[in-house]
Write a structure and sequence with these properties.
about 15% strand; single chain; disordered C terminus; 20 helices; two-stranded antiparallel sheet; globular; 2 domains; nine-stranded mixed beta sheet; EreA/ChaN-like  fold; alpha/beta
Length: about 450
C-alpha cells in the first residue's frame, strides 16, 4: 500500500453494526443544515445509514425536520400523518407514502422509509405541538398536483381567488399533465409560455397572506405556508420545463436553485414557529449534495444544492456528507419509467475514488475531510467518482455514471460502504427477488 493510501487508512474511522455515530455527530451536530447524500438512488445501506444519523440528530441534537429530494405535495402527505392530520385513508406510515405514485416508486416507497416514518410518528406522539418534527419535499416536478393544491386551498379561504387561480393556470391547458411537452412546445414556438401567469399567481398568494390568516390558529398558518410553497413550485416548475430544451445545465440549475430556496423558506418558517434558528437534515443524491464547484459538472457550468448552501451560510452552519460504494447490487431501471430491477453493481473503475477506498480493505468507514488538508492531499488530484441515479446502465458505465471530482473539496466527510445491497421497494411489481440483506447489516437498525 502506497503512502497516500496508508494515510487514508489511518484517517478512516471504521463503521460497525455497533457504531453510535459519535465521531460523525461531533462534527455535524452544531450545523443548522446537514446534507446527507447517496451514490445511488437504490442502495439499502445508504437509506439505513441516513435514517440512523437522522434519528440521532432529530432526537438528541434539536433538529426540526427532514427535507428530501421529492415533490412538495407528495411529502406533505407524510407531514400531515406525522402531525396527526392524516388524509382519511392514511392509517399507517406506508399509507402516508401513498402520494408517491410516479416513477421511481422505490425511491421513497420502500421498507427503510416506512421504518423511519414510523419512528418519527412515535417521537411526535411524545412531544408537544411546538416540538414536533417534520418531513418535507424539495423538488419541483409536481406541476399539476401543486396547481391543484393551490386551487384547493383557495377554494376553502377565498373562492373568488380560487377561480382567478384556475384561470391563470389554464394557460397550461392539457400540457400540465405532460410538462415536457409544454417545454417542447415553447422551444418550438408553438405556444406562448405561462411565466407571467404563474408569477402573478405566486404574487397574489404572498400579497393576500394577511387576509387568509383570519384566525390565530397554527393550522391556518401551516396551510397557508404549504399553499404558498405549492405556488412557488408551480412558478419554478414552469421555469424548469421551459428551459429543459435550452440545455441540461440551465434546467439543472433552475432545479437545484429551487431546492436551495425551498430550504431557506423552510428554515425561515420553522424558525419563526420555534423562536430560534431551525435545523434541517437533507436527503438527496451526491450530485445534489456535494459542492458542484469541486466537480467536472460544476466546471462546465452546473451549480447545485450543496454549493448554494455553502455560499449562503457560514462555514460551520452546514455539513455535507457524501456516500460511496465499490460494488454489490442496486435497485434501478434500465430506461426511464420502466419497472425497477435488481442490478449488479460492477466493481469501481480502476483509479477512481471508490477503487482506492476498496483498496483500504475496510468494509465500512467514515473519512473526515473538513480541516484535513493531509487527507485531501492524499486523495490526490480530481479522480473519477461514480453516480448511479434511478437509471443504471452497466454497459455504458464510464460514460453514463462517472464524473471527475475533487472529493476533499466536494464534501466535509465521506461514508464508504464497500459492498451494498439493493433497496427493498414496497411495490415489487416485476422486481426480481432481492439479494438477502441481514436485518442488522451494517448499522443494526
Amino acid at each position: 500500500m502506497d503512502s497516500a493510501l496508508e494515510l487514508l487508512r489511518s484517517a478512516a474511522l471504521p463503521v460497525t453494526p455497533d457504531s453510535d455515530w459519535s465521531d460523525l455527530l461531533a462534527q455535524m451536530c452544531d450545523a443548522h443544515l446537514v446534507l446527507l447524500g447517496e451514490a445511488t438512488h437504490g442502495s439499502e445501506e445508504f437509506y439505513r445509514a441516513r435514517a440512523a444519523i437522522s434519528r440521532r440528530l432529530l432526537q438528541d441534537h434539536g433538529f426540526d425536520a427532514i427535507a428530501v429530494e421529492a415533490d412538495w405535495p407528495d411529502a406533505l402527505r407524510v407531514q400531515r400523518w406525522l402531525h396527526g392530520r392524516p388524509l382519511s385513508d392514511d392509517h399507517c406510515a406506508a399509507d402516508s407514502l401513498g402520494a408517491f405514485r410516479r416513477f421511481p416508486l422505490w425511491m421513497w416507497r420502500n421498507h427503510a422509509m416506512v421504518g423511519l416514518i414510523d419512528w418519527m410518528h412515535a417521537l411526535n406522539a411524545s412531544r408537544t405541538a411546538q416540538q414536533k418534527i417534520g418531513f418535507f419535499g424539495l423538488d419541483l416536478f409536481s406541476l399539476r398536483h401543486s396547481m391543484q393544491a393551490v386551487v384547493h386551498y383557495l377554494q376553502q379561504v377565498d373562492p373568488e381567488a380560487a377561480q382567478e387561480a384556475r384561470e391563470r393556470y389554464s394557460c397550461f391547458d392539457h400540457l400540465a399533465d405532460e410538462p415536457q411537452r409544454y417545454g417542447q412546445a415553447i422551444s418550438r414556438g408553438l405556444k406562448q409560455d405561462c411565466e407571467d401567469e404563474v408569477v402573478r399567481q405566486l404574487k397574489a398568494m404572498l400579497d393576500e397572506a394577511g387576509r387568509y390568516l383570519s384566525t390565530d390558529g397554527q393550522d391556518d398558518a401551516d396551510e397557508l405556508f404549504y399553499a404558498q410553497q405549492n405556488a412557488r413550485v408551480v412558478r419554478n416548475a414552469e421555469d424548469y420545463y421551459r428551459t429543459l430544451f435550452h440545455g441540461r445545465d440551465e434546467s439543472w440549475n433552475v432545479r437545484d436553485t429551487h431546492m436551495a430556496d425551498t430550504l431557506t423558506a423552510l428554515q425561515d418558517y420553522l424558525g419563526a414557529k420555534r423562536g430560534r434558528p431551525a435545523k434541517l437534515v437533507v436527503w438527496a443524491h451526491n450530485s445534489h449534495i456535494g459542492d458542484a464547484r469541486a466537480t467536472g459538472l460544476g466546471w462546465q457550468g452546473q451549480l447545485n444544492l450543496g454549493q448554494l448552501v455553502r455560499q449562503r451560510t457560514t462555514d460551520d452552519a452546514s455539513f455535507l456528507l457524501g456516500f460511496t460504494t465499490h460494488s454489490g447490487a442496486v435497485t434501478a431501471a434500465t430506461h426511464w419509467d420502466e419497472p425497477a430491477q435488481l442490478k449488479q453493481v460492477r466493481p469501481a473503475l480502476q483509479g477512481s475514488h471508490e477503487d482506492r477506498f476498496h483498496r483500504l480493505g475496510l468494509a465500512s468507514f467514515l473519512l473526515p475531510l473538513r480541516g484535513r488538508e493531509d487527507v485531501s492531499d492524499a486523495l490526490g488530484s480530481p479522480r473519477l467518482e461514480r453516480a448511479i441515479g434511478v437509471i443504471y446502465r452497466p454497459d455504458t458505465e464510464r460514460l453514463s455514471h462517472y464524473f471527475d471530482a475533487d472529493l476533499g473539496r466536494q464534501f466535509d466527510a465521506v461514508l464508504h460502504i464497500d459492498r451494498t445491497h439493493a433497496l427493498r421497494p414496497l411495490d415489487r411489481g416485476r422486481m426480481p427477488e432481492h439479494d438477502d440483506v441481514p436485518e442488522t447489516f451494517p448499522f443494526g437498525i
